[in-house]
């Protein structure tokens, strides 16, 4: 008998009412002993595990799939638990399109509690995001955080995400697309969402996404149309941004409508020209930025001195400046890593 997960759960509720919980007790003993091997579970035992997790509520605030089994089979078996959870940690679980289809159904369910979804470091590709977007665009989707770090995504995923979020824009406040080869063309699609007055995005992470000054110019244009929400922007490791990209960003930073509190520009091939522009912008609008990361750029202590003065100034809210590294070992690591990709 191959019952669906929901039917199996109902069956276990009946068994509990009849005081016939031998299978449930067996799984509980395994959990208590720490000897639960999900690779050997039968379908009935999987359902017992789901029943236990849903009954206890222990993992429903933050459900970590790796705790049980970092696999697609485990995700599909434990889908009712994910649906009942507030946060689902599903990174490094070898997930594919099948998982995206299943998660899409969770996102579009009226009864889903899921608000935070981490799918990072799975080879989802554009085809997976396309399937996931069917859930994202549902009016029943209440997702607030979506993390898709290093999922082998391209500009196509950006276009798909823009389309989905345009249809259901009101809840997402954090989007993480670090380490995907989105390029400027992909980012231009995202800017279409950022400039919408319906966008509530507060945190945007785009580390090492092959972006250039073109993306910075488009970002500033979008944020000037809808400036009030974005507070954290991570552009680390986009080495084609350079000074010309930062000059565009400074056009937004000096605006009184800018609410940005954290700006990360690590290893973006910046020079003292960027430092001077940032000083000028922050003096024009000193009220919001509290953290600025300029590490791993070709900067000397003298280049960042005026920024350091802002940190020490009572008239500036800049509290944290990360710039010139004293740790030679870290710098050497970066140098050697770059040589491997030459």
UniProtKB/TrEMBL annotation:
InterPro entries: Leu-rich_rpt (IPR001611), LRR_dom_sf (IPR032675), NLR (IPR051261). Keywords: Leucine-rich repeat, Repeat. It comes from Oryzias latipes (Japanese rice fish). SMART domains: LRR_RI. Pfam families: LRR_6. This is NACHT LRR and PYD domain-containing protein. The keyword Repeat applies. The keyword Hydrolase does not apply.
């Amino acid at each position: 008998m191959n019952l669906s997960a929901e039917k199996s759960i109902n069956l276990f509720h009946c068994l509990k009412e009849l005081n016939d919980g031998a299978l449930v007790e067996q799984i509980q003993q395994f959990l208590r002993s720490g000897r639960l091997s999900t690779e050997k579970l039968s379908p009935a035992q999987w359902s017992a595990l789901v029943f236990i997790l849903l009954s206890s509520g222990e993992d429903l605030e933050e459900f970590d799939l790796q705790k049980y089994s970092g696999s697609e089979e485990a995700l599909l078996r434990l889908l009712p638990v994910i649906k009942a959870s507030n946060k689902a940690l599903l990174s490094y679980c070898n997930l594919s399109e099948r998982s995206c289809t299943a998660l899409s159904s969770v996102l579009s369910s009226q009864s889903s509690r899921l608000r935070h979804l981490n799918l990072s470091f799975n080879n989802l590709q554009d085809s997976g995001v396309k399937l996931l977007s069917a859930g994202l665009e549902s009016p029943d989707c209440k997702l607030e955080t979506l993390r898709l770090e290093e999922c082998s995504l391209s500009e196509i995923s950006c276009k798909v995400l823009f389309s989905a979020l345009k249809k259901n824009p009101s809840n997402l406040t954090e989007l993480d697309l670090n380490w995907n080869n989105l390029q400027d063309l992909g980012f231009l699609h995202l800017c279409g969402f950022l400039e919408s007055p319906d966008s509530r995005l507060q945190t945007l992470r785009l580390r090492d996404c092959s972006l250039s000054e073109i993306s910075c110019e488009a970002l500033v244009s979008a944020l000037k149309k809808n400036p009030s929400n974005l507070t954290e922007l991570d552009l680390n490791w986009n080495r084609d941004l350079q000074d010309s990209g930062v000059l565009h960003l400074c056009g937004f930073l000096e605006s009184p409508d800018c609410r940005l509190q954290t700006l990360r520009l690590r290893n973006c091939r910046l020079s003292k020209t960027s430092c001077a522009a940032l000083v000028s912008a922050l003096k024009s609008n000193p009220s919001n930025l509290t953290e600025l990361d300029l590490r791993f750029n070709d900067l000397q202590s003298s280049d960042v001195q005026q920024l350091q003065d802002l940190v020490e100034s009572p008239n500036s809210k800049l509290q944290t400046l990360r710039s010139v590294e004293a740790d030679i070992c870290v710098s050497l690591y970066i140098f050697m890593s770059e040589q491997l990709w030459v």
